[in-house]
Amino acid sequence: MKTKITDVFFDLDHTLWDFDKNSALTFDIIFKKNNVVIDLDRFSEIYRPINLKYWKLYREEKVSKSNLRYGRLKESFDALEIIVEDNVINQLSIDYIDYLTAYNHVFEGTIEILDYLKSKYKLHIITNGFKEVQQSKLEKSNIAHYFDTVTSSEAVGVKKPNPKVFNHALKMANITKEYGIMIGDNYEADILGALNIGMDAICYNYHNVDLENEIKEVKHLLDLKKYL
Fold first, then answer.
1. CB 199 within 8 Å of CB 182
2. Residue 157: which region, alpha, beta or left (left: phi > 0; alpha: psi -120 to 50)?
3. Is the peptide bond before 161 cis (omega within 30 degrees of 0)?
4. Closest by alpha carbon to 52, among 71, 28, 30, 26?
5. Fewest Cβ atoms closer than 10 Å to its Cβ: which of 96, 201, 222, 224?
6. Angstrom distances, CA of residue 18 to CA of 21, 135, 140, 149
7. b/e per residue 185-220 (b: at least 16 CB within 10 A)
8. Kind and range of the H or E run holding 92
9. Is the distance from CB of 175 to CB of 6 less than 8 angstroms?
C-alpha cells in the first residue's frame, strides 16, 4: 500500500454498521407495534434485494427518499402476497426510521480495526444513508469518536458514486485524493466512486461478489491490516 496514505474513509451501512441484522431486529419491533403478522425470516429474505434495488434507484436519482421508504415495503408485501393498507405502510416507514437505531450491532472486528487504524491515520465516514439517522448510528454504536469528519450525501446534494461526494469529503479532510483511501462494501458506490476520481479503494467483500482482478478486497475487516 502507498505509504503516503494519511486518511481512511469508510462507508457506514453494510461496512461497519451491520445493517441487515439491525434492520431485521427493527422490523420485529415495528411489525408487532402495528399488528402486522408476518414471518420475519421470510420477509427479510424478500426485503433485502428489494431494498438494495431501491437504494440503487435512489443513488441514481430515480426515486425520492419518501418513494424509497414506502416502495421497498409495498413491493415486499406484494411479493409475499400479504395485504397491508397504505396507511399502515406509511406508518411502518416512519416507525422504521424512528426505531432503526434501537439496535446498533457492528460487524465483527469493527472496534479492533478502528482502534488499530486510529493510531496511524485520520478516519472519516462517507455515507449515502439518511442524514438524520447516520449520526445516531455512529453515536449509539459507540464509534462516532473515531471519525474526524462525516460526509452525508444528503448534505452534498448528490449520492455516491458521484464524484462531488468524494471531493467534498476530501475537502473536509483537507487532503488531496492521493492521500486518501476508501473502504466500503458496494462496488459501484464505494469502490468505483473512489477509483473514478483517482482515490485508492478496498472492497469489504463479505458478500463474495466477483470483482475485477485489480480490485483490492478483504472478506473480514481485520484483514485490512494487510493493506494499512
1. yes
2. left
3. yes
4. 71
5. 222
6. 6, 15, 13, 20
7. bbbebbbbbbbebebbbbbbbbeeeeeeeebbbbee
8. helix 86-99
9. yes
- Residues 49-74: what's their mean pLDDT? 93
> Per residue in 191-220, pLDDT tens?
999 999 999 999 999 989 888 879 999 999
Task: Assess whether pLDDT exceeds 90 at residue 130.
Answer: no
Cell reading at 105: 450491532
CA distance 141 to 227: 25
180-184 sheet: strands from edge to edge: 147-152, 122-127, 7-10, 180-184, 200-204, 216-218
* The residue type at 209: V
- Is 70 exceeded by the pLDDT of residue 2? no
